[in-house]
Amino acid sequence: MAVDVTEDTQTQRLNLDDQVAHLLRRAHQRASSLFLSVLGEHQLTPTQFFAMARLHERGQLSQNRLGRLAAMDPATIQGVIRRLEERGYIQRTPDANDRRRMVLTLTSRGSELVSGLLNHADTVSESILEPLDAQERGLFLDLLRRVT
Amino acid sequence: MAVDVTEDTQTQRLNLDDQVAHLLRRAHQRASSLFLSVLGEHQLTPTQFFAMARLHERGQLSQNRLGRLAAMDPATIQGVIRRLEERGYIQRTPDANDRRRMVLTLTSRGSELVSGLLNHADTVSESILEPLDAQERGLFLDLLRRVT
DNA sequence: CGGGGATTGCGCGTATACGAAAGATGCGGA
DNA sequence: TCCGCATCTTTCGTATACGCGCAATCCCCG
User: Fold this and answer.
1) Most buried of A148, B109, B136, B145 (most Cβ within 10 A)?
2) What does the pLDDT average to over A53-63?
3) What is the CATH number of the domain that holds B75?
4) Chain-chain contact of B13 with A119 (C-beta, under 8 angstroms)
């Protein structure tokens, strides 16, 4: 954390390149880009894939609940779901017990697509971490999980 | 969160929550949110602040070059610059030597704003890393830089 | 010196992302 | 039972983010 005092009006200050928000933005950029280079042929964005994978994992879910499980704002998940429904990957039916809710289910097409892509997704995770060796990867994942 | 191999066609697979792209997206979300909670009163997004900070650091720059230095796509930086210019923080003048270019400069208002916020930005970096102790922070920054 | 590839900036289209607010519905306590 | 508050979903507005195509300009190389 060597920070040098530049001896001007302000006190010691971090280098711009050490801004954590900036580093995280760039890492996220790179991750999304790698994801699209692997799964892009199926026209799925990282967000879309993750929403479908969560649904595949949990079965039926309400829209809001899926949003929480996928870390997406209700306003955001709405558009994601709408586009996936338009493409025939997700089905939305009214909840019989609670008329505020819509129940989401993967269609067979959607289910097959996700199953087939889960392995590719793991490949993406590996390529993101490619600059690190095995021990560092575990360490990084642990730290990243705690910062999230 | 116990996910077990479900004994189907596929082999052992990572937990969904270990998808690196997803973890990075969430970390980025949290970082942006913390940034806005500290600098939001000045109506500056992380991206806008970083673009201005780079300009403050380097002086005059062309639009494309600023984009590269701030890790932003030419199409993206265009909108960022346009909004900052509309708000009077950045001035765009035609380059005398290369008529394709526009030279970007911070206005005095923009310059004062950035100077005053640089310390706050460092505060944000610290709050993002708050869950980690001093040693882990250095480690995390190092790993994050290499993954970027 | 002339032509073609590269660079610069713009506009369009799509997809996140989130705050704010609105409308419908559910639910618990007085 | 009814009122008020919480929840679910949608819509609006703003801002990233990036691919693609376009036009103007630059500059290198033959």
Assistant:
1) A148
2) 93
3) 1.10.10.10
4) yes
